[in-house]
């Protein structure tokens, strides 16, 4: 084959399959000069070279059309979703017909159009991604003369309470001590025996924000289904409206995949999602980071995944790195926003910590992948794996507590903490369960009721134990040992009302989605 012809074909194919991957790196802030990123780029260039060499004449047209449709169909479907909910096959067929018609009409000029379009989209993608920093700078405004009575409601995903940690595991005892020291040092009232009514974020957090239990599974979360953009929308309107009526400005800090803003219209929404960028800094072998990077790219698009993302011979399962999505400077950023806010502000922040996988040591360093690759498989584990996961989970809790200490120490130094109401809550526990074949079926669904006998207390604590600490002017600090739900305690302390008696139960769901109440307090009564 003529070298110039091959080079031209290689440029065309590489534009179609390489630029989307480079755009993926840019949007996730992953440095392209890292060995794992360069290896991925080299493999895609190899794929492009093989396709350019194999394709001739009409075959080459077909290759370019097929590659372009695989890369473009899902982004196009998501773009059209606000207007019409087209199925994936319909979008793929429509795109293929349109591109095929253009190829017949334009002939050789079609390839120029493909390169120009792909290049233009990549440039636009880079401008949009790089122009949106993970955390926008705090405006350089002078703090008010006197600190304002702000409200900070901080939800830490999968952070259980101290009493929910198994005391026969040394790392868990150490983590429980770290939780108690952090909050008691800063004048909070800590509720070590608090529990959530539900075992998932999409059930627990909206229940708290709406101030009542769910009538059915998925009631406040669009049936728990993400939209076309992969975002799960949770109902938060009653909570935000109650503060808006009292003159608060509403700031929401959230992961881009879990939104509290669609129906509640807060004053400002800041989203984060930089997990791969943080992961690039991990002191791990480049081969392990290559597997995570390529797996994440392949899984970012279902159609692309079926083609392995054009990585020949490589197929990796995507591994969520939820704790690394949270920006490293979140304590300083939150403190600055509260210290410099010119008016009374409610900051609602949902942080994916101490969420699985348990990859952070107590100093924040990232573990080797082999230790945490299966952490988000919620099937019950044998005793050795159970204890090992809990020990790593406990270390991750210690790291989160050190970040909370940074936040509260800074707010205390500025005097802002004394006037604020601060609520720090988990949404549920880590849902780590010991395999008990004689007692339950062991469903991987953490909200499923599948017990054959009375539920083991350890299982219930793993699902429902939730951190709760409150600091409020006039509220005496200390440790409150009552066994009560988040909804019960928050109703009493924040709103001065008694919650319904059903809120003392925890709820798992039957196969048909009906909630089934479990009297956790009665099962817990024998434990001091």
Provide a concise account of the structure shown.
By secondary structure, the chain is an alpha/beta fold. Helices cover 46% and strands 10% of the residues. The strands form three sheets. An eight-stranded mixed β-sheet has the order 6-4-7-1-8-9-2-10. A two-stranded parallel ribbon has the order 3-5.
Shape: globular
Largest sheet features: 8 strands, mixed
Helix content: 40-55%
Tally of individual helices: 18
What pattern of helices and strands is seen along the backbone? HHHHHEHEHEHEEEHHHHHEHHEHEEHEEH
Strand content: 5-15%
Q: CATH topology of the largest domain, which one?
A: Alkaline Phosphatase, subunit A
Number of strand elements: 12
The CATH architecture assignment of the largest domain turns out to be: 3-Layer(aba) Sandwich
Structural class: alpha/beta
CATH class of the largest domain: Alpha Beta
Structural overview:
The chain is α/β, with parallel strands linked by helices and 528 residues long. It folds into 2 domains: 3-130, no CATH class; 151-274 and 327-524, Alkaline Phosphatase, subunit A, CATH 3.40.720. 46% of the residues lie in helices and 10% in strands. The protein is built from 18 helices and 12 strands. It has helices at 3-27, 35-54, 58-80, 88-106, 109-130, 170-185, 201-210, 237-244, 275-279, 286-299, 302-306, 322-325, 330-340, 369-372, 383-414, 457-464, 486-495, 520-524; strands at residues 151-156, 189-190, 232-233, 249-255, 258-259, 268-272, 345-351, 421-426, 468-471, 478-479, 506-509, 515-518. It has an 8-stranded mixed beta sheet. Strands 3-5 form a two-stranded parallel ribbon. α1 (3-27) runs antiparallel to α2 and α1 (3-27) packs parallel to α3 (58-80).
